[in-house]
Amino acid sequence: MQRLARLAETFGFAPDSPLLTEAFTHRSYAVEHSLDYDNQRLEFLGDSVLEIILTEALFRRYPAMSEGDMTKTRSALACEGTLALLARELRLGPLLRIGRGEQCAGGVDRDSTLADLFEAFTGAFFLELGFDPVRKFLLELFGSHFPDPQQLLQELNPKGKLQEFSQQHWNEVPRYCIFHHSGPQHQPLYEVEVSLRNFTAAGTGRSRKQAEFNAAAALFQFLRKKGVIEDDL
Q1: pLDDT above 70 covers what percent of the chain?
Q2: 82 HSE (CA, 13 A, CB side)
Q3: Residues tagged active-site
Q4: How do residues 55-104 score in pLDDT, each as one tens digit?
Q5: In whole angstroms, what is the distance from residue 93 CA to residue 85 CA?
Q6: Tell me, which fold does domain 158-225 have in CATH?
Q7: Per-residue b/e over 176-208, b at no fewer than 16 CB within 10 Å?
Q8: Fewest beta carbons less than 10 Å away: which of 17, 93, 103, 120?
Q9: How far apart are the C-alpha atoms of 116 and 43, rounded to whole Å?
Q10: How many C-beta atoms lie closer than 10 Å to residue 43's C-beta?
Q11: pTM (two decimals)
Q12: Mutual orientation of helices 67-77 and 40-61 as an angle, nearest 10°?
């Protein structure tokens, strides 16, 4: 709890903020400890707050961008992988209270868990400090990682781009394999590995399609960093 208190001080939350405590309480922990709250409601709120802030930012920055492209760009900015990346940047994961079973299954390290946590934190931030502070925080955070969000339109189909590259250069196609499937029927979690030659990457998602998307994106970015794929592809 001391680390949570330091986080509260850093962002201007009240000491022992109940909103912050709620935001960092996973449903599995609440069930195991018979708590009457968890972070799902704040996650729902944070998702809406994030959507309106990103929508306004894109609307003002790109006056010629079509509605369809704004929707696609916003989706790329607020996708599971992006939010998980930002949660890791802020080191939110280690502060999450999570149930023993979920912890053993690697829940705190999953992209889906971290993305949900980021949204819950956003919801708590909004309720505690108001719209303008959370807007400033989010735009600075996203701006530091995505200085030109319009470029994200080029990265919306990582599976297609990866397959196109591999067929053109190696006459091969990526292979996808589900190596773990967990969670209740109404909220499953898929973990998928994609392999291509000697390269592999993994991704998680609430559907097989989303997990394959995240795995392909991870492998594509890895190959780009290694110089296997040129930056302009």
Answers
A1: 96
A2: 20
A3: 47, 119
A4: 999 999 999 999 988 998 998 899 888 899 899 999 999 999 999 888 77
A5: 11
A6: Double Stranded RNA Binding Domain (3.30.160)
A7: beeeeebeeeeeebbbbbbebeeebbbbbbeee
A8: 103
A9: 6
A10: 21
A11: 0.71
A12: 130
Read off the pLDDT of residues 124-144 as tens digits, 9 standing for 90 and up: 999 999 999 999 999 999 999
Residue 118 corresponds to which tokens in the numbers above?
């980021």
* Partner residues linked to 200 by β-bridges: 195
The two structure tokens encoding residue 36? 């009457």
**2-148 belongs to which CATH class?**
mainly alpha
Query: For the residues 189-214, what does the mean pLDDT come to?
Result: 90
Contacts of 72 (CB under 8 A, 6+ apart): 153, 156
Three-state secondary structure call for residue 195: strand
Q: Residue 153 pLDDT > 90, yes or no?
A: no
Q: CA-CA distance, 206 to 221, in Å (whole number)?
A: 21
